[in-house]
Design goal:
The chain is mostly helical and about 290 residues long. Helices cover about 75% and strands about 0% of the residues. The chain folds into two domains: about 110 residues; about 130 residues. The protein contains nine helices and no strands. Helix 2 packs antiparallel against helix 4, helix 6 runs antiparallel to helix 7 and helix 6 runs parallel beside helix 8.
Length: about 290
């Protein structure tokens, strides 16, 4: 779908662009781009080789093709998992090392292709070189948890699980709103998601905030996801302007409340720090260790 240019003097250009801009705040380009797409394209010539060969060799080439495409998909999922891991301050390592599995599958697929055309020795060379090059090109999966050192493991693990669940709700919102076919609404959803992730990062920095933010990460986001799904179903069929206005109003209310909760948590954390500083100063004064300014 073509995206209409929106500027100051375009229709609707007088509206505030902050919501659109906020959707790109802290945004980073995905690394799962051209190199991953090349992994899906590179094995396709095996189709031609398969259907110009005898049946047994044809089956080997087709098996190699399927294995290499599976390796490409696994690698792409691994890149997405690492981007999500890198974006969080507290995260558990991926349960399945997808990029490592992609390297293994790449080596296996090349080995099958090499066996069909160059024999057993060629298959071993292709497997070793292909697997190593894949690992060098895409790296390894995160092998350890992040942000959990020196902290209460139980608390940080609870935060990691809560944030993962909240991220699932945000992804479901993104998937659903695309069905509505309205770019402005998609940008508003992105803006809300940016504000919600600010709350996630605040909770990750201080796991004690999880109790105060639990409803926002679960109940409110679940409600937002359900509302988005219903809006997308209705708007894609009827283009109901009232439904669109009601949904945008809901997003405004949600974003305002999430931002307010984030600010409140930050103020409470700052207040806790001030109390700790005052207590320490009083103790130093009692022990005669504080120098007068």
């Amino acid at each position: 779908m073509a995206q209409k240019f929106g500027g100051k003097y375009s229709p609707g250009g007088g509206q505030s662009s902050s919501a659109s801009d906020d959707g790109f705040r802290n945004a980073k380009r995905s690394r799962a781009g051209g190199r991953i797409n090349l992994l899906f394209i590179a094995p396709l010539p095996l189709i031609w080789k398969a259907f110009t060969s005898e049946p047994i060799v044809m089956a080997q080439y087709l098996a190699a093709l399927g294995t290499l495409l599976l390796a490409a998909w696994m690698t792409r999922e691994g890149m997405f998992a690492q981007e999500a891991f890198d974006a969080r301050k507290v995260a558990r390592r991926p349960a399945l090392p997808r990029k490592l599995l992609g390297s293994v599958l790449t080596g296996l697929g090349l080995a099958i292709a090499g066996l069909a055309s160059h024999g057993l020795i060629g298959a071993g060379i292709f497997a070793a070189v292909g697997g190593l090059l894949h690992s060098f090109a895409f790296g390894l999966d995160p092998m350890s948890d992040k942000g959990m050192e020196g902290t209460n493991r139980h608390q940080t693990d609870r935060v990691a699980r809560a944030v993962e669940e909240a991220e699932e709700h945000l992804r479901a919102m993104s998937d659903a709103v695309t069905r509505a076919g309205d770019r402005d609404v998609e940008r508003r959803v992105q803006s809300f998601q940016t504000t919600a992730r600010d709350l996630f990062r605040t909770v990750e920095e201080d796991p004690r905030d999880l109790t105060a933010a639990r409803r926002y990460l679960s109940v409110y986001l679940l409600g937002a996801k359900d509302a988005t799904v219903k809006f997308a179903d209705i708007y894609s069929r009827t283009q109901d302007s009232q439904a669109r206005a009601d949904y945008l109003t809901l997003l405004d209310d949600l974003e305002e409340n999430f931002a307010a909760r984030t600010q409140k948590l930050l103020l409470e954390d700052r207040g806790d720090l001030t109390i700790e500083i005052d207590v320490l100063r009083e103790r130093l004064e009692r022990e005669g260790l504080r120098r007068d300014s």
